[in-house]
UniProtKB/TrEMBL annotation:
Domain Glycoside hydrolase family 2 immunoglobulin-like beta-sandwich span(s) in chain numbering: 183-285
Family as reported in the entry's similarity comment: Belongs to the glycosyl hydrolase 2 family.
Record keywords: Glycosidase, Hydrolase
Domain DUF4982 per the UniProt entry, residue ranges: 611-658
Keyword field contains Hydrolase: yes
Pfam families linked: DUF4982, Glyco_hydro_2, Glyco_hydro_2_C, Glyco_hydro_2_N
Protein name per UniProt: DUF4982 domain-containing protein
Record carries keyword Hydrolase: yes
UniProt cross-references to Gene3D superfamilies, sorted A to Z: Galactose-binding domain-like, Glycosidases, Immunoglobulins
Length: 678
């Protein structure tokens, strides 16, 4: 081995352990879990993070699923070469309360189950040895932590990733509410020029020093902008560095049409050596809402085809992995979704990244959830509760500040003004949201009249016309009357939906009782067809969001074909079956050619005369029954073709539909059994 090669190895080693950029080490494996009452030796079981202890009991419809304390323990070896560096534990999500200990010494508490948090452990560890981590987690009901109630499960556990982060004594801050420490504020954006304010937070633990901060904007491999500044950092202080960044003729982030993003790279240097690096996306865009014309992105009208999304699955609860978020995104994109309300809480970092890359307009919100139609409280006027809500709002905004997909900060869902009145507190939250981020509007989801509807920059309503009450026509009346009465109010629909079981089929249209065990799929289809027509015909509705994209867990739900599940999803809880309403929206929202026969799961028909409904976005299509051509027809403006009074034969019938055009060959078919009503 020659001398030059040896010197290269030595230099690389010194660079790695002397001055180096941060090290991120996953701590997701080798945890031992036990409940707090399991105090006997060796009572724990080995688990891997993400983990929840409610994956079975909550999803079985058990009303009193475990709401208590669980202990997570593991060892962590700290390399002796890390002496002089800084060590941080970062938790992406622990529901709901986390108390963290290192070697039996208390680090602190985090209250809130949906946001990330960080603890520095530099002075708490033994170097060159194994160290013991203990995280005591509680999902017990508390009056000082949001949410107090919700139509979803409060899964307990460390259900998102954990990592150890090692930095130099001087670093880009990790401790500003667990944010990346880099904030990209879009001060002014036009098609001709973008002015971005890059704010970098630096943290110095040890002696006074001089460092150089470099900020770069990259378009692929090309550096479009670069700024540098020398900074003198005082011992034990944090410093804010601000770069005004100008980008001429910016390539705009333009939703699904063109979700282009620049990449920013913030680096910290001392004596020519790299100390730290943080990479953040920069999607440059401008948007707004007109009370009469709706939502605009980069100066162009954009009809928001939105859905709501919860974050759980069978057998997993909320302990999801990256591939689950990716699958959800794939399904939403297949349907043609271009907007998502992430209800009712801050969700995984993975999903925000996916929203950015896919060009999805995003509504992100805190878990300030009201009782809705349930006997409970959503707001307690105590100092602890109020401060926790503000903390969770700061975390939501600072941790997700740079995501171009986020266009709305949501402040509450279905609160009431009875008892402790939340109006003044919401005003405080609204002021706080604007002080944290003046570039995005606030919104909320209301289900009633009153002052609550006039506190945020825009408002949306949860409406279930045709499910819990009234008829779809009442939605039209509500929207028109509200718009007429408050012409300057930006009006949206934050939820609309109906339950459906793929196992509940009927060939007549009969409205079910929502709290019953009979949720026929064809009523959900009818509901969405009628409600979407009403929404689509009113451009002043700035956005609408189907409740829900996927069935989700709610232990108190005893309805439909399975207890413990809210079945209003357009896709089943396991993501395996897309309901008929999914294909209605796909035909209307996704321009990719498609053809689908509705009600194909209704295998047993009680009448020999049937209406056949098809969803398609192609031209003329042809219907065949038992090989006989019934007729040709073209879809209406809502991508729907309906043949009325089609006569079936007694017994088995094969129904086929196909495109007429030879340039576009699509077909669908099903088999049904027909019998006359006796």
């Amino acid at each position: 081995m020659n001398l030059r090669y040896i010197l290269l190895i030595i230099f690389s080693y010194c660079a790695l352990w002397g001055y180096s950029q941060r090290i991120c080490k996953s701590l997701n494996d080798n945890w031992i879990f036990r409940f707090s009452h399991q105090v006997e030796k060796d009572a724990g079981i080995r688990v891997t993070i993400p983990h929840t202890w409610n994956a079975q009991d909550a999803l079985s419809g058990k009303l009193d699923y475990k709401r208590g304390i669980g202990n997570y323990e593991r060892t962590l070896y700290i390399d002796s070469r890390w002496k002089g560096k800084r060590l941080f534990l970062r938790f992406e999500g622990v529901n709901t309360i986390a108390n963290v200990f290192v070697n039996g010494k208390y680090l602190g508490e985090h209250k809130g189950g949906y946001s990330a948090f960080v603890f520095e452990i530099t002075d708490k560890v033994n170097y060159g040895k194994d160290n013991k981590l203990l995280v005591r987690v509680s999902n017990a009901e508390r009056l000082d932590v949001m949410p107090l109630v919700g139509d979803f499960n409060m899964y307990g556990g460390i259900y998102r990733g954990v990592e150890l982060i090692v930095t130099e004594s001087v670093c880009i801050s990790l401790q500003d509410y667990a944010s990346p420490g880099v904030y990209l504020t879009q001060q002014k954006v036009t098609n001709d020029e973008a002015i971005i304010l890059a704010t970098i937070l630096l943290s110095n633990r040890l002696k006074k020093c001089n460092v150089m901060v470099r900020f770069e904007v990259k378009d692929g491999l090309n550096i479009t902008s670069q700024y540098e500044r020398q900074i003198n950092l005082e011992e034990g202080k944090e410093e804010k560095v601000v770069f005004p960044v100008k980008i001429g003729s910016p390539h705009l982030w333009n939703g699904k049409k063109d979700p282009f993003m620049y990449q920013t790279e913030t680096t910290l240097w001392a004596d020519g050596l790299l100390l730290d690096k943080v990479v953040q996306p920069l999607g440059i865009r401008y948007f707004g809402i007109d009370p009469n014309k709706g939502f605009f992105l980069n100066g162009e009208y954009l009809k928001l085809h939105g859905v709501c999304r919860h974050q759980d699955r069978p057998e997993l609860g909320n302990a999801l992995h990256s591939e689950h978020h990716e699958e959800d995104m794939h399904i939403m994109l297949e349907m043609g979704v271009n907007a998502v309300r992430l209800a009712h809480y801050q969700q995984s970092e993975d999903i925000y990244d996916l929203m950015d890359r896919s060009g999805i307009i995003t509504w992100a919100e805190i878990p300030f959830v009201g009782p809705g139609g349930y006997e409970d409280k959503g707001f307690v006027n105590s100092l602890d509760f109020r401060e926790n809500g503000k903390q969770q709002l700061r975390e939501l905004i600072r941790q997700n500040y740079n995501h171009p997909s986020i266009c709305f900060w949501g402040l509450f869902n279905e609160l009431t003004e009875q008892g402790d009145n939340p109006v003044e507190y919401i005003r405080e939250l609204n002021i706080l949201a604007h002080s944290e981020d003046s570039s995005r509007p606030t919104t909320a989801a209301s289900n009633q009249s009153g002052s609550l509807n006039f506190l945020t920059d825009c408002i949306a309503w949860n409406r279930y016309d045709g499910w819990y009450n009234s008829t779809p026509e009442n939605l039209a009346e509500f929207l028109d009357e509200t718009h007429s009465t408050y012409p300057d109010l930006c009006i949206g629909i934050s939820e609309y939906g109906a339950g459906a079981s793929i196992y509940h089929q009927q060939d007549s249209l009969c409205r079910p009782i929502p709290v019953s065990f009979w949720h026929p799929e064809n009523w959900q289809t009818y509901y969405h067809m009628e409600n979407w027509k009403i929404i689509n015909e009113r451009p002043f509705v700035w956005g609408s969001f189907v409740w829900n994209m996927f069935d989700f867990g709610a232990a108190h739900r005893h309805e439909g074909d399975r207890i413990g599940i809210n079945d209003k999803g357009l896709v089943t809880f396991d993501r395996k079956i897309k309901k008929d309403a999914f294909y209605f929206y796909k035909a209307n929202w996704n321009p990719e050619p498609m053809l689908y026969i509705a009600e194909k799961r209704c295998r047993n028909r009680t009448n020999l005369v049937q209406d056949i409904t098809v969803f398609t976005n192609v031209g003329e299509v042809e219907l065949l029954v038992n090989g006989m051509i019934i007729g040709k027809a073209s879809p209406d403006q809502y991508a729907t073709v309906k043949w009325k009074n089609v006569k079936l034969e007694m017994g088995e019938n094969k129904i086929q539909v196909r495109t007429v055009s030879k340039q576009r060959s699509l077909q669908d078919e099903c088999v049904v059994w027909a019998d006359s009503i006796r």
